[in-house]
Amino acid sequence: MSLLSQESQETVDDVALGESFTKGSSHVIIASIVAAVLVTIAVAIYVISGEKPPASTGDIVEVWAHPMHSESSGFDANGAMIPKETTDSVLVFTHVRLHNQGKQPIYLHEILTNILLDDGLHSSYATRTGDYERLFKAYPVLAPFQATPLSPETTINPGQTVEGTFVSSFRMPKEQWEARKSLDYTFGFQYLPNLKLTPKVSVTEH
């Protein structure tokens, strides 16, 4: 065999070896990609199947608003005349039903009423049960609408459903309240994600 033939044969062998190596590498890369995809799918299935339903559910049963306008007498404690002051506010009464579908007690610790206006989000905390009761004494005109209150600090046992009414107050005129873009509620539970509820019922006025 001549030197030239020997060099040509070595070149062919090197090319064949390179092609074989490339094919082998391609197979390894493809196998790695397939394995990675399968692992990702398996993890996703595990996470989805292992997700627990939220501990709390609920729905808004009724919402009604009561606009209020007050004006000071224009006199101070000594009887001297002073400029009159006016105040506009809207009381928002909400009847809600909450259910614990978990296996442990859950502890409600705050309720927020949220409205979206042109200038942004406005939120108001629900009053405590004692303040709720005093409100109807201070404003007898509201007495016909008094209902069983729901305390913002309520324990709900597994499988239990509680319902009641709470009130929030927004210091704004009736026109601004009626111009709201949205209304929803945030129920805060200790050590659990907040429960957000949007009413499906219309807001009435009393």
Structure, explained:
This protein has 206 residues and is α+β, with helices and mostly antiparallel strands. 31% of the residues lie in helices and 37% in strands. The protein contains three helices and nine strands; from the N terminus they run αββββαββαβββ. The strands form two sheets. Strands 3, 4, 5, 7 and 8 form a five-stranded antiparallel beta sheet that branches. It has a four-stranded mixed beta sheet with strand order 6-2-1-9, with no helix packed on it. The termini are far apart. The model is unreliable at 2-8 and 42-50 (pLDDT under 50).
Per-chain topology:
Blueprint: H1 3-50, E1 56-71, E2 86-100, E3 106-117, E4 120-125, H2 129-138, E5 154-156, E6 161-170, H3 174-178, E7 182-189, E8 195-197, E9 203-205
Structure summary, number of beta strands: 9
Give the amount of beta strand, in percent. 35-45%
What is the molecular shape? Answer: elongated
The average pLDDT value, as a whole number, equals 82
Q: How would you spell out the order of helices and strands?
A: HEEEEHEEHEEE
- Alpha-beta content class: alpha+beta
Distance between the termini: 110 Å
Percentage of helical residues? 25-40%
The Cα radius of gyration reads 34 Å
The major pleated sheet works out as: 5 strands, antiparallel
User: For this entry, what is the oligomeric state of its chains?
Assistant: single chain
Number of helices: 3
Which stretches are poorly predicted, pLDDT < 50 over at least 5 residues?
Answer: 2-8, 42-50
